[in-house]
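Re: duplicated header lines in exported structure tokens

Our pipeline writes sequence and tokens for each protein into one text file. With two proteins the header for the second block appears twice in some exports. Here is an export where it did not happen, for reference. First protein block:
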Amino acid sequence: MMIMSKRVGMPSARLAASVLLLLTLSACMPARSRAVFFEEQQVRGVTMSLETVANPRLHLPYRFTVTLSDAQGNPLASNDIYLDLDMPAMPMGINRPIAEPEAPGRYSAMTVYTMPGDWEITVVAHIDGEVYEAVFLMYVEE
């Protein structure tokens, strides 16, 4: 009986070297980051800020972070806070994601833009029986 052997080490070594090269090159590349949209407004003594991704695109989920604070910068609690997203040029259906608490005075919600163009993001917060609203403008790319 004759046993034939194949040389198997060579392709594996090339594959390992290729993977190592790709990992090395990717580690040298700068991290790709998205620009951040951050804006705050004063509404009757309450500071309302909105943070999200700047230059958003269609049909991708985005996180919106809302921060509420009083005139001294102390976090404010809201038991009912949501975003109301609409397009001034073309009224859309209801898009009102509810914001969930993350930390004192900090809330987040997720939603998706369904059309390109100018959007109004109204942050609505109920604080101590009063309603506070701040409108933020965002342009959505195709």
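Second protein block, exported in the same file:
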Amino acid sequence: MLSKILQEALNKQVALEAASSQAYLAMASWADIQPGLKGVTEFFYQQSDEERVHMLKLIKYVNERGGFAVVPALEQPIVTFQSLKRVFEEFIRHEIVVSEAINELVHMAFQEKDYATHNFLQWYVAEQVEEERVARELNEKMELIGEDKSGLYLFDRDILNYRNTGGGKKH
């Protein structure tokens, strides 16, 4: 049985994963109306889908453990960006926030001596290591590109290969 404290904390994580999904969906929509960013657009649509899967996994876990998972109301995410560089800066910032929240959940589960939840959360710990790595590397690439349009062209062309091969991972 899930404690009320962990149930509330896991429900907060559900909300954070849902907000992540919405944020990445907004990034995809913004990129979709920019000329020549079809790869970036698809990348963020995929990111949005992944975050929704993370949310559903949490919802199912809470309910399976005798708790009640709450589907959260969501605030409007940022919908316009000054530049693609800003999109990727927001991406890494968001992933760091999620990682910090997961770490806090792991700590809470350990303190509560809820080893089932502690074990369940290890998947999220590993996932966040990977998500932060991808976000950090893509930010580094954006820094290298700067305002170079040919670099941006190659970045957009390669971003999905980066995600689906050795540079990133496919879920």
